[in-house]
Every structure is written in C-alpha cells, then in structure tokens.
Amino acid sequence: xxxxxxxxxxxxxxxxxxxxxxxxxxxxxxxxxxxxxxxxxxxxxxxxxxxxxxxxxxxxxxxxxxxxxxxxxxxxxxxxxxxxxxxxxxxxxxx
Length: 95
Description:
The protein is built from 4 helices and no strands. By secondary structure, it is mainly α. The protein is globular and about 45 Å long. The two termini are about 30 Å apart.
C-alpha cells in the first residue's frame, strides 16, 4: 500500500512553475482546491479531462461562495469553476 501511494499520490504544484497562481484565476484555484488537499499540478490531466475532474470535486465540496445567508463562510475571491477550469486547461498536459 505504501509503495502504491508513494508512486501514485497526488503531487503538490510547484508554484515556481506557475507564476500566475497570483492571478484571480490562480487564487480561485488555490482557494477551492486547498480546502481538501494539496494543490494538484495542472499537468496531471489534459485540458479535456479537467472539466470532469473539477465537476467531481465540486460534488465533493460545498463551495464556500455558494453558502447562503452566512457571509462569514464566503471566500474571497469568490469561486468561479469556469475560471478555475480555464486556469487548469491553460497549464494542462498535452496528452
């Protein structure tokens, strides 16, 4: 089991490779994904695969900016999945 996890565990993004993590899209990505796990490297999936991955993650998480009647639970910046997908697709692996 440990050997499997060492080989297949999610690898954290290297921020030096993605200077636009400080952009609004990058910050949305970081805000959303870091609530449950390390930030995944966008090259983990292809541009075509990322929308399904984000949709699956969205089902696993009650997005903070969609919590109604409790402003304290809203994130800043507000999370926009389309923007997160664009960020991930821009940096995704070719195939």
